[in-house]
Amino acid sequence: MTLLAGIPAVQAQQPGKASTVTTTAPRHTNRLVNATSPYLLQHAHNPVDWWPWCDEALALARRDNKPIFLSIGYSACHWCHVMERESFESDDIARVLNEHFVSIKVDREERPDIDDLYMKATVLYNQGQGGWPMSVFLTPDLKPFVAGTYFPPESRYGRPGFKQLLLEIARVWREDRDRVRAGAESLADAVRRYASIEPGSELIPHATLAALAGALVKHFDPVKGGIVGGGTNKFPPSMAMDIMLRVYLHSLAPDDSGQVRPRRELLECIETTLDHMAHGGIYDQLGGGIARYSTDVDWLVPHFEKMLYDQALVTSIYLDAWQLTRKPLYARVAREICDYVIADLQSPEGGYYSTRDADSEGVEGKYYVWSKAEVLNELGPRDGELFCAYYDVTEAGNWEGTNILNVPRGLDVVARLHKIEPAELERILAASRARLLAVRARRVPPHLDDKILAAWNGLMIAAMARTACVLGEPRFRESAVRAADFVLTHMQADGGLLRSCRKGIAHTPGFLDDHAFFIEGLINLYEATFDLRWLDQAARLTEVVMRRFRDERDGGFFFTADHAPHILVRSKDADDGAIPSGNSIMLMNLLRLSILLDRRDWHAEAERLMRAFQKRVTDHPFSAERMLAAVDFYHARPREIAIVAPVPGPAPDPLLKIVWQTYVPNKIVVGVVGDPQAAARRIPLLADRNPVDGKPTAFVCENFVCKRPTTDPRELERLLAPPVERR
User: Fold this and answer.
1) What is the SS3 assignment for 49?
2) What is the average per-residue pLDDT within 163-175?
3) Is this structure's pTM higher than 0.70?
4) Helix (H) or strand (E) holding 598
5) Residue 663 and residue 19: Cα distance in Å, rounded?
6) What is the CA radius of gyration of the chain?
7) What pLDDT, on the 0 to 100 scale, is given for residue 725?
8) Helix 422-440 and helix 372-379: axis angle, to 10°?
9) Between 171 and 672, where is the model more confident?
10) Does residue 375 or residue 651 have the better pLDDT?
11) In this structure, are residues 528 and 478 in contact, taking their beta carbons and an 8 Å threshold?
12) Domains of the chain listed by start with CATH number
């Protein structure tokens, strides 16, 4: 809906690289110099008289009756920084902004509530398009009346110039304010309707998963994998592949008619995608870690930023796929991503940083690309030529005259072409990677957004804990413990979590996703350690969510706490996008904790949540992949696995290895460390469970029926193993 004549709706831009760092003394300093957000600090020396989002700025707009220019972005957003260089560093444009507007800058990662609300307005205003930078003009009472993304300083690309836009909005506000307010009220009403969720009366049907999986297959690239959309960009479809893998597993069991109809096409889509991602430029072949997305359909040219949440989500799907297929590549990628996070994104105090940017020295990807001459100079002619052959390094380059490392051919193929044994080639490549990684470390690194977000830390803690269990590597468990301890020590106030922490300063009351994601991390950490303190903290924070975020009338949870101020509408969302929704994760948390702690009230609350979003999910399943994973957990009935061992006595490691290396997506795992009576009092699944014959023992129950206890890892594997597809 275009509310002002002559101001067209604008199209979304993709996020990208950050701005360069100035080395001269700044000519200007504004209020953002006192911010903690790295993104806001990047704008602290613009001539624009920026405000952070605060009561003082909002009061100023009301007092002076000025419209608000709201600019929302994040530190790794390319077009955010293009607009900064072109417009916000312009004295001419700054004069217009400072005279006619109250200008407010928001880091969307610190204030996802503000970002979500005004993104809804932007999408409505632009007929389905949105993105960052988000440029929204508000009345003093915070109602949007014009919304867009990137504007060039002068008219081009079919867009009005930013200065022209500012002057026109200032004129209309001055001369026709009633029409502006009427348009703002209309858009605000549309946002309220868009944000409203009509509850259903039934639970979300289990059949929704299979229907979604079948629809997803039609959107997957059969050659390179990934979801084919309207453009060339491909994002790692982690949550979609989770649903497809679950449906494939169900297809290996007899259906209601007694027939077995394996959905092999689902597994083929997943393997094709994971193989090409692992071998593509989107994956850092030297240092590990996954980039935000690929700008081409071949996964070759990434947008080079590395987001913490992507590392967590991608790690999890590689672990799932390894459990089912046992492909060594998948375990290696999961291991390398977690090692990358520990090396580059974990603070000395334990918390995980948010983002490693895409550019260094003002050039996107410069840190990651190579010329053939560089490679040969560092590795010598023999090893260098082998490295170049395997990683697609040529004189001409594969991207803008440089080379993005990728693996277009298998190890055996390259070994055969160069008349070398595959094992010897792998040894040379491993040594070469280590040498080039050391060389790369001496380059100017991309900008690090070193704020620590509770929500994203929760996702990474959950992934780290799972990786420790599945791969049997304790360093990942230790990393997760350090991160959880950091959040619990430094990011709490009034019993709940705080959203963000940087340089020892934590602030902003946590939102639903901060609590939900962190609770998930704590539950995974309990299963990885059997330490009751993590389960106790998960239960305590769940009580906080129930008190502060619960929708008493319709079920589900609001994004903001009951005591937090909200703008226009108190949002309650279940859409899974780049990251899952808080309601999706909270549904799984409630289901898991209801079994772990025998909390039937939380099981009932999970059912209320499903009814609250039943219509939304069944109408829009593509936006509910993570919620549907929890729906699968509910309908498929999780296996309850208790591991007990004599104290003192042999460790239960052989049994735990089977539990964690088998693909059983719907399971609860409990065990005893220390006092067995204390554990049994807290966790009913451990009551009356004693080791058999003085040996570590596994108890497996499913659908209200318990199997015979076993001390034999092979028997446990038989109990847990998925059906084998008959070819």
Assistant:
1) coil
2) 97
3) yes
4) none
5) 44
6) 27
7) 63
8) 110
9) 171
10) 375
11) no
12) 31-195 (3.40.30.10), 368-442 (no CATH), 639-720 (3.40.30.10)
